[in-house]
Amino acid sequence: MASFELTTDSAQRLQYATALLQKHGWSPQQGPALVVLGAEQRMFGLGGAFPPEGWPISTGEAGFGNVVDSGRTPTGLHRICACIGDGAPIGMVFKSREPTGEIVSPAGALDGDFITTRILWLEGMEEGVNRGPGVDSRERYIYIHGTPHVHQLGQPVSKGCVRMDDRDVMTLYPLVSLHTPVLILA
Predict the structure, then answer these.
(1) pLDDT tens string 111-135
(2) Tens digit of each residue's pLDDT (9 = 90 or more) over 14-36
(3) What is the DSSP string of the chain?
(4) CA distances from 166 to 11, 35, 39, 93 (A)
(5) Nearest-CA neighbor of 46 among 84, 17, 24, 76?
(6) Which residues pair with 145 in a beta bridge?
(7) Sorting pLDDT into bands at 50, 70 and 90, what band is 109?
(8) Is beta strand 116-124 parallel, antiparallel or unpaired with respect to 162-165?
(9) Any residues with CB less than 8 A from the CB of 130 and at least 6 apart, and which?
(10) Which domains does the chain have, with CATH numbers?
(11) What confidence tens digit (pLDDT) does each residue in 42-75 have?
(12) Measured between alpha carbons, how far is 119 from 116 in angstroms, rounded to an integer?
């Protein structure tokens, strides 16, 4: 993995995100939290055994926004409402949150928006922002999930989900659980 250095601006955004999570009642003693920094195309873990450099990700090619059918990655406070993929091998393809039996690797992946390895389904926590009619992240099927398209990580290319390297999502999966907070900033 290429080394990553947090810039001063990124460090300030991460501090802001931490303060915002704390304002919403989160503390490290309650368990971990995740922060997606869209401008950096990076996700960080707080309050747990997370790598300090975080992980490269890909968010929505259409940008950030909460409207249904926009293809944008929703912003705001979320939480994990389902952890899917226990025991599935790396590269397992999921359709409708069910394993298909197909395995893809970075070398063998064709074009497509593959959902692979693990799924962390997100539920919005802010009524009218990312929860409720027309903006509901859960009803939009917004996930943090694996992808075989590792060459695209660091670029906004998804259909609204947060994509991660399959190996990284395998590492992350046991470190989080139901109701882990996830803050997404554009």
Answers:
(1) 778 999 999 999 999 999 999 999 9
(2) 999 999 999 999 999 999 999 99
(3) -------HHHHHHHHHHHHHHHHTT--GGG--EEEEETTTTEEEEESSS--TT-EEEE-BTT-B---TTS-PBPPEEEEEEEEE-TTPPTTEEEETTEEEEEE--TTT--SS---EEEEEEEEE-SBTTTBSTTT-TTTTT-EEEEES-GGGTTS--BSSSEEEEHHHHHHHGGG--TT-EEEEE-
(4) 26, 18, 22, 11
(5) 17
(6) 119, 163
(7) low
(8) unpaired
(9) 66, 74, 75, 76, 77, 78, 124, 136, 137
(10) 8-185 (2.40.440.10)
(11) 999 999 889 999 999 999 999 999 999 999 999 9
(12) 8
> In this structure, what token pair is assigned to residue 73?
């990655």
pTM of structure: 0.94
